[in-house]
Design a protein that fits this description.
The structure is a single chain. The chain has helices at residues 9-15, 30-40, 66-72, 107-128, 164-175, 177-185, 206-211, 214-217, 229-240, 245-248, 252-261, 283-289, and strands at residues 49-54, 61-64, 95-98, 131-136. With 290 residues, it is mostly helical. It has 2 domains: 9-60 and 104-289, no CATH class; 61-103, no CATH class. The strands form 2 sheets. A two-stranded parallel sheet has the order 1-4. A two-stranded antiparallel ribbon has the order 2-3. The protein is globular. It starts with 8 loop residues before the first helix and ends with a helix. 31% of the residues are buried.
């Protein structure tokens, strides 16, 4: 939730004078963030600070090749007839892309991926001496997998509390010896909105932040579920910069105005293989943030 058609927390950091570079695209999964960091790590210096908000646990990306696709005859699932995926080079139909609906991974797989990949990035950043902050867009233990039948339906927008069934699964995952050791090695002090990491109820993200206050929810887009610009503004100041957004948010009134303006804007078609440095922010909002 850092790259969208209206200002996100990244854009507000920039508006408040921070030099930022977006390296994520809407719809990315945790694997995208991991491989993007690998790709750009040599461009990041010790003077930089990396902020990574890990997406929902159902967004598992897989590596594909022509043989796998042909064997299952699932050509129509992919974004174009040219066979271009993320990281495709000379060989078409080879690269990284979303998990096919008929070959979904377990919820346990998604949760563990969203614990392991942050740790792998932590190790890489610590090795380079690069400061970093991490968090989740939503409680990582929630089952927010979309429904595909009888028709596609997102579920994350209806979730704000962990169920007993999810809590039972979470505690079982935490008790697995290698996962428990993994969680003990993660530097949770660098995470935003994670209390006791061994208590699944103490995880939160920008989604919970958005739905927590009526003043944010009233600016919800008529069809799109992304948090409004005001929620992004306040999240950037409160959670990342440790600034009171109401007392010291000099651009908060502008965030309210943009939130009201974008409630009914038309959402452009999505590029399902967008590059990490493709900026989605509409030009009229870019101009207002200058």
């Amino acid at each position: 939730m850092c790259n969208w058609h209206w200002p996100t927390w990244v854009d507000w950091l920039s508006a408040y004078g921070k030099k930022v570079k977006k390296l994520s695209y809407t719809g990315y999964g945790s694997q995208n963030l991991y491989w993007t960091l690998i790709e750009y790590i040599d461009d990041i210096t010790k003077d930089d600070s990396v902020i990574m908000l890990w997406p929902s646990n159902h967004r598992i990306m897989k590596w594909y090749d022509r043989e796998w696709i042909a064997t299952r005859d699932v050509w129509g699932f992919f974004p174009n007839k040219q066979g271009e995926l993320w990281y495709t080079n000379e060989q078409s139909w080879s690269g990284l892309y979303r998990t096919h609906p008929d070959y979904q991974q377990s919820l346990t797989q998604g949760i563990i991926e969203n614990l392991n990949l942050p740790y792998q990035c932590q190790l890489l950043l610590e090795q380079r001496g690069i400061k970093h902050t991490m968090g989740y867009t939503q409680n990582v233990w929630l089952d927010v997998r979309p429904k595909y039948k009888p028709e596609f339906q997102v579920t994350y927008k209806d979730r704000n509390k962990i169920s007993d069934q999810e809590l039972e699964l979470a505690n079982n995952i935490i008790s697995m010896p290698p996962i428990n050791k993994l969680m003990n090695k993660i530097n949770w002090d660098n995470f935003v909105d994670v209390g006791n990491p061994f208590n699944p109820k103490e995880y939160s993200g920008i989604w919970e932040y958005f739905i927590s206050k009526k003043e944010y929810v009233i600016y919800k887009h008529e069809t799109d579920q992304h948090p409004c610009p005001l929620a992004h503004h306040d999240y950037a100041l409160e959670k990342i910069l440790d600034i009171d957004p109401i007392e010291n948010g000099t651009l908060r009134r502008l965030a309210e105005q943009i939130s009201a303006d974008c409630m009914e804007i038309e959402i452009p078609p999505m590029d399902f293989i967008g590059k990490p440095n493709d900026d989605l922010l509409l030009s009229k909002y870019k101009d207002q943030l200058l």
